[in-house]
Design goal:
Layout: E1 18-23, H1 27-42, H2 50-68, E2 76-84, E3 87-94, H3 115-122, E4 125-130, E5 136-143
Antiparallel strand pairs: 1-2, 2-3, 3-5, 4-5
Length: 149
């Protein structure tokens, strides 16, 4: 009987991204925040940045619902979480075409317009990327402390 060769995975084994799809409805914000934070602390051992991640996830999902979701079959948003290169990455994607690349200042009495300012303040890195077929992804990175597990 011939023995199979032993294949050793790289050390550490890279984490497989976790992906969710949510309806573009206000109720999805709290559900997405809970899913993302639970996965970050359990799967990616990122408890040190959970508070920042919770706020950023809420902001990104809210913005995708308000500004990026399109009616019909594309009235959904996607969230993807992964850890690589000593960062915890979160991408929130929608089918909208409007791409805002820089934080804008809001007027003092307004109740909106501070989302990208918040993202810029809390995320260690962030960008907006066009998607191949349609829409965009806002990607944030939080520096992760310690080795990947």
């Amino acid at each position: 009987m011939r023995q199979q060769p032993t294949v050793r995975p790289p050390d550490p084994v890279p984490a497989v991204p976790v992906r969710w799809v949510y309806p573009a409805q206000p109720e999805s914000v709290s559900r997405a925040r809970g899913d993302i934070c639970t996965s970050a602390s359990r799967t990616f051992r990122a408890a040190d940045r959970t508070d920042d991640l919770a706020l950023l996830a809420s902001e990104l999902v809210t913005n995708a619902i308000l500004h990026g979701a399109l009616p019909a079959r594309e009235y959904v948003i996607e969230a993807t979480l992964w850890r690589a290169d000593n960062y915890l990455w979160l991408a929130v994607s929608d089918a909208g075409e409007d791409v805002i690349l820089t934080p804008a200042s809001s007027w003092p009495g307004g109740c909106g317009g501070r989302g990208l300012l918040l993202i810029d303040a809390l995320a260690d890195v962030w960008t907006v990327l066009p998607r191949a077929a349609r829409g965009k992804s806002v990607v944030i990175g939080l520096a992760a402390e310690g080795p990947m597990r």
